[in-house]
Design a protein that fits this description.
47% of the residues lie in helices and 12% in strands. By secondary structure, the chain is of the alpha+beta class. It has a single domain, classed as Cytochrome P450 (Cytochrome p450, Orthogonal Bundle). The strands form five sheets. The protein has a five-stranded mixed β-sheet with strand order 1-2-10-7-3, with helices on both faces. Helix 7 runs parallel beside helix 17, helix 10 packs antiparallel against helix 11 and helix 10 crosses helix 13.
Length: 413
């Protein structure tokens, strides 16, 4: 294992969830980009050691080389690289599978996320959005996260997988547990983070096992039906592969877009001139969406594991060592973004990495952009005088840039 270097003391706070509750990570990332852009962090009892990657160019370099930097040993800081595949999903789940199998698995559901298919979803997404705003309009206030931002992506992904409306709260609850196990609000009482994650996985697998069995008896027009009939190299997906796929669709399709929408509104509220600029010129919506994604960076980090000895920015990375890509840091890299600490709804170019890059570029990118666009089009058209009405509560997580609660007040047009 790599010896601790002087640089390794810089940024050690990044492993603690409280830093993200307080939204204090960006000054640390800024210092690391300047002084130690590739730095080693020794492990603790909670996680193995890793290299912190903080520069845009280095995140691109790692992402472009899936042969050297693999996903099948875990994708999160807290992942156990020695965990059995039945719990880690190594080489089973799409997100923890390496090429060439990753590419073949991805093709199974690609057609459900093509631009043409996504465009067909806009009427239903707009209908859902207007229904959500109708539900809060007369109240004059709401918790924007739980009442609005979380509900749209939840409704969309649950509809795509064929989950009935009465099951949506359960999947929402299990998503919060699976992706927020370090947060006291979501962690199982009397259990630790790993037990919380495992509980979420077991319950979600039990739920989808019943759905899969139902689709095998009666096919429907949904993604679960697609998976039950899918083959890779002439072999059907195993039950475990289907269950991991379903879990990933719910987790990724729900949490990250929720955080982009809630974080996007918070950014607009913190920068009222930019909100009014967007209201006055709706043609800025495409660039505003990209700026929201850059600014929020809903996924804080992804891990890769080196398969061979290599070098990055003069640092020797050994086979078996993990590299952790900090997306919020890369998305404020001074060498790529002019005045990166300024929120600018008209920013162009905007080469952010909020959706990742390379083999694991987010499958639902088009869907996320559509949901964000429709949400802000409807919000700005139908609500005025939007303001914070209480404390913003952030998720205790180094993995996701999340907001749990955001009270707002407004006037309905």
């Amino acid at each position: 294992m790599t010896a601790t270097t002087p640089d390794s003391v810089l940024g050690l706070e990044l492993v603690y969830g409280d830093l993200y509750v307080q939204n204090n990570a960006h000054p640390i990332w800024r210092q690391m980009r300047a002084e130690a852009p590739v730095s080693w962090h020794p492990g603790t009892s909670a996680f193995p050691g890793f290299w912190s990657i903080t520069k845009h160019a280095d995140v691109l370099a790692v992402s472009r080389d899936p042969a050297t930097f693999i996903s099948s040993r875990g994708i999160a800081m807290s992942s156990d690289p020695n965990a059995p595949p039945e719990t880690s999903g190594a080489n089973i789940s799409l997100i923890t599978t390496d090429p060439p199998r990753h590419v073949r698995m991805r093709r199974l559901v690609n057609k459900g996320f093509t631009p043409r298919m996504i465009a067909l979803l806009e009427p239903s997404i707009r209908e859902t959005t207007t229904h959500l705003i109708d539900g809060i309009a007369a109240r004059g206030s709401c918790d924007f996260v739980t009442d609005v931002a979380a509900q749209l992506p939840l409704a969309v992904i649950c509809s795509m997988i064929g989950a009935p409306r009465e099951d949506w709260p359960l999947l929402f609850h299990l998503t919060n547990q699976g992706l927020g196990p370090d947060d006291p609000e979501y962690q199982l009482e009397g259990r630790d983070r790993r037990e919380t994650i495992e509980h979420s996985r077991r319950e979600m697998f039990a739920y989808f096992a019943k759905v899969v069995a139902d689709r095998r008896r009666e096919r429907r027009d949904d993604l679960v039906t697609v998976l039950t009939g899918a083959e890779i190299d002439g072999e059907a997906l195993t039950e475990k592969e289907i269950l991991f796929f379903c879990q990933l669709l719910v987790l990724a399709g729900n949490e990250t877009t929720r955080n982009a929408i809630s974080g996007g509104l918070l950014a607009l509220l913190k920068h009222p001139a930019e909100m009014e600029r967007l209201r006055a010129d709706p043609t800025l919506m495409p660039t505003a969406i990209e700026e929201i994604l850059r600014w929020v960076s809903p996924v804080a980090h992804i891990v890769r594991t080196a398969t061979r000895d290599t070098e990055l920015r003069g640092q020797q990375i050994r086979a078996g060592e993990r590299v952790l890509m900090w997306y919020p840091s890369a998305n404020r890299d001074e060498e790529v973004f002019a005045d990166p600490g300024r929120f600018d709804v008209g920013r162009t170019p905007n080469d952010h990495l909020a959706f990742g890059f390379g083999e694991h570029f987010c499958l639902g990118t088009g869907l996320a952009r559509l949901e964000i666009r429709v949400m802000f089009e409807e919000l700005l058209a139908r609500l005025t005088d939007i303001a914070l009405a209480g404390e913003v509560q952030r998720l205790r997580s180094a993995f996701l840039t999340g907001i749990k609660h955001m009270p707002i007040s407004f006037v309905a047009r």
